[in-house]
Amino acid sequence: MSNGIFHVDFRASTGDYGDGLVVVKDGAVNGGDPHYLYQGRVPTVSGPFESQFTVGKWRDGNTNVVGIDNYTLAAKGRIDYEAGILELDGAVVGAPNLKIQLKGKKIQDAV
Question: For the chain, which domains are there?
Answer without folding.
Answer: 4-108 (2.40.128.380)
